[in-house]
Amino acid sequence: MAYAELDGNITPDEAAAAELARYAKERPTALVKDARNVLLIGSDSRAGDGNSAYGRDSGTERSDTTILLHLSAGRRSATAVSIPRDLMVDVPACRRPDGSRSAPMFAMFNHSFQTGGSACTIRTVEKLTGVRIDHHVVVDFHGFKKMVDALDGVEVCLKEPIRDKAAKLRLPAGRVTLDGEQALGYVRARKTLGDGSDTDRMDRQQRFLGALVDKAQSNDVLLNPVKLYPVLDAATSSLTTDPALASLRSLYDLVRGLREIPTGQVRFLTVPRESYVYNANRDQLVEPAAEKLFERLRTDAPVSVTGKEPGNPTSSESPDHDAYASPSPAEPTFRGNTAGDHTCT
Q1: What is the mean pLDDT of the chain?
Q2: Which among 239, 262, 265, 261 is positioned nearest to 250, based on CA atoms?
Q3: What's the helix, strand, coil split of the chain in %, to 5?
Q4: CB 151: neighbour CB atoms within 10 A?
Q5: Residue 2 to residue 247: CA distance in whole angstroms
Q6: Which DSSP letter does residue 98 get?
Q7: pLDDT at 320 over 60
Q8: What phi and psi values does residue 203 have, to the nearest 5 degrees?
Q9: How far apart are CA 10 and CA 136, in angstroms?
Q10: CB 116: neighbour CB atoms within 10 A?
């Protein structure tokens, strides 16, 4: 299968590239050669093929999920950091879809995508973290489902049966292989699975992505172009990326670079945060833990995670300090999990 046969499926985000070039002087500098930071944005748009089944289109597109993926130099490890959509952040002045410009504001994180799309989200993340974003990928519901189906489903471990009418899920406990439609319901459900919190939903997303990584590695998808091309073809059907990544060759080179990363070196965590002091339904960063994490991403330093559930302090821990990072300044440990943590025991 030739690269050219599939490149037409990817939409290059020329508007974002132009907007980011406008603010080039204020963007962070990449500190480590060959390390890469990719912003993965899951869009809740209902405009794409088959997406209208997930609700009415209100005319605005929001980021349903945002993950900062750090790939270390030499591709020794990968760290995926979820950014809560309800996190209160400084959103810079951004270009709206109609060409007008918004004023800077202090708002929920997902307001950045709603206001100014991927460019505004990238600038907000860079302002928040100091991490230079090298590439970005926006995928909608349809693309997510097709990618899972291209892998012939992804196995997860369910501690309890799921009977969720809102997510259209009826699943038994134990090992379950989710198809694309089931996987989408599983990662998007918020109010009727677990404790109903966004924390629980992000943890579920991270564990699913860990299982997806396991599936891709165990089936030799990352090593075999004949297996990898169909997966990329499925994913590109609903992808918007920065122009530098908007070709099958570029995507292939990026993905195949992950093939030798050990499962235990693929880490998932949520940015350290707690309830916003003025609104318990919103989040704010926990400091200094958040800055310690961002510094390690900027400098390509190792990120260690514990087996505790991200973002849920135990009764013996203070939620505003040691709940997210160990007191050791040399090697802080953050709450999270690795790609292998989803397996049934």
Answers
A1: 83
A2: 239
A3: 35, 25, 40
A4: 19
A5: 12
A6: T
A7: no
A8: -65, -40
A9: 12
A10: 25
